[in-house]
Amino acid sequence: MTKNPIAAAAVSILALGLAFGVTPALAAKMDATIGMQLEPPNLDPTGGAAAAIDEVLYANVFEGLTRFGSDGAILPALAESWEISEDGLTYTFKLHTGVKFHDGSAFDAEDVKFSLDRARADDSTNAQKALFADIASVEVVDPASVRVTLSKPNGSFLFNMAWGDAVIVAPETAADNAAHPVGTGPFTFGEWAKGDRVDLNRNPDYWGTPVKLDKVTFKFISDPTAAFAAMMAGDLDAYPAFPAPENLVQFEADPRFEVIIGSSEGETILAMNNKKPPLDNIKVRQAIAHAIDRQAIIDGALFGYGTPIGTHFAPHNPAYVDLTAQSAHDPDQSRALLAEAGIKDLTLSLKLPPPSYARRGGEIIAAQLREVGINAEITNVEWAQWLEDVFKGKNFDLTIVSHTEPMDIGIYAREDYYFQYGNADFKAIMADLDKATDPARRTELMQAAQKKIADDYVNAYLFQLPRTGVTNAKLKGIWPNSPTQANDMTGVYWEE
């Protein structure tokens, strides 16, 4: 019998591989392709407001003095530690040494001073310039130490320094970061094929814990149908914020995939105009809150994905308090409260912006309000009209919107904010929070703030906007929650 020479060669290669304990076909995968809906307009987190910039670059390419953990906690980053003066005005940061930017230049305190001074300068283009407003001065103590003095106490300062807008850049390369980002992170910039993808490569000279992937590609696929097809075909290894929740049941039934359901920073609320009668009456606002069946909204508008909330705070934050029972669905109580307030045949406007959670959720809420005797007249508006008429003009009774900024409960202290609360006691809590630096005291005050707005039924709190992700079942380490708008790949790896 004649031997097949190709088969014989294959057997010989396999035998040689086994002899050396190597099986090439089973080598660990060292790259990952991540789907995103939107492409960033540029690659400089300090020079643009688009969330997609941070989604690609945060913690991967650029780092700040501090950073967000997956649970929203504030962790050390380029600053290994810090000391805060007793009056809360001075922060002295001790920096990691031996850190290099991706171009090989050394990182030190001068870079921190440059970055913070640049972000707060009069001509700054930083989209979150308010983060730096309380900085009075930045001084270099020595190459590994920097002193930041504030004009007034700000207990959120370490939180502010964790934002993507506060990353540290080098004066030599800052002007070119929009197209060729140079940071200190565990990945270096590879290529930006506009309209298609951004490639990042493992930084072999990273100062901290090395990443396990050699390459990460962020692939931009905005169409939900195309995103589904790309995942099913294996062209994508993960899509952390999958755009079509109605398809998740198909992924859940397929053992090749893992569906990850978490929360974002998006507190979704039925906002109420607190200064417009009869919504200036707490009993009316309380009646509206008790008319709402949160789970019915989550099921009907979000295909069952979403976390009920009873206050304006993310459930994944360590300081979160579950207050949903305080405004539980109770139509009988709603009717009783309206009767106590002397309200009959109430008609309110309900202005809905474009997102599906608002449009779908608004229809459900209108039906729930009708059950207790409130007629909600729905008007669908575009974002520009919503911003002008509702947000700026305060010309509304009710509206639905998701507030996506990290830990933004402070908006309730703004007298002119669109739902017009501005309560003096709440302002006092926030003023104390600004002064507090002790973590336990800050938690106590954040929880008091949550309770205060729940007690006052400022708005009807619906759900935390879900983060619905799909990954290859063997890809591990993708953040389940989104404490900031980022696809942090620093802990991602393939399970063998």
Topology readout:
Layout lengths: L4 H15 L11 E6 L14 H7 L8 E3 L5 E3 L2 E6 L5 E6 L13 H12 L14 E8 L2 E6 L6 H4 L26 E7 L3 E6 L12 E6 L3 H10 L4 E2 L8 H5 L4 E16 L9 H10 L2 H9 L4 E2 L22 H10 L5 E7 L3 H15 L3 E7 L2 H10 L5 E6 L20 H12 L3 H17 L4 E13 L2 E2 L16 E2 L2
Parallel strand pairs: 1-10, 14-15, 14-16
Antiparallel strand pairs: 2-3, 4-5, 5-7, 6-7, 8-9, 9-10, 11-17, 12-16, 12-17, 13-17, 18-19
Helix pairs in contact: 7-9, 8-10, 12-13
Question: Could you please describe the fold and organization of this structure?
Answer:
It is a single chain. This protein is an alpha+beta fold. Helices cover 27% and strands 23% of the residues. It has 13 helices and 19 strands. The protein has helices spanning 5-19, 51-57, 109-120, 157-160, 224-233, 248-252, 282-291, 294-302, 331-340, 356-370, 383-392, 424-435, 439-455; strands spanning 31-36, 66-68, 74-76, 79-84, 90-95, 135-142, 145-150, 187-193, 197-202, 215-220, 238-239, 257-272, 307-308, 346-352, 374-380, 398-403, 460-472, 475-476, 493-494. Strands 11, 12, 13, 14, 15, 16 and 17 form a 7-stranded mixed β-sheet that branches. Strands 1-10-9-8 form a 4-stranded mixed β-sheet, covered by helices on one side. Strand 8 (187-193) and strand 9 (197-202) form a beta hairpin. Helix 8 (294-302) runs antiparallel to helix 10 and helix 12 packs antiparallel against helix 13 (439-455). It is globular, with a radius of gyration of 26 Å. The chain starts with a helix and ends with a strand. 43% of the residues are buried. Residues 1-25 have low confidence and may be disordered.
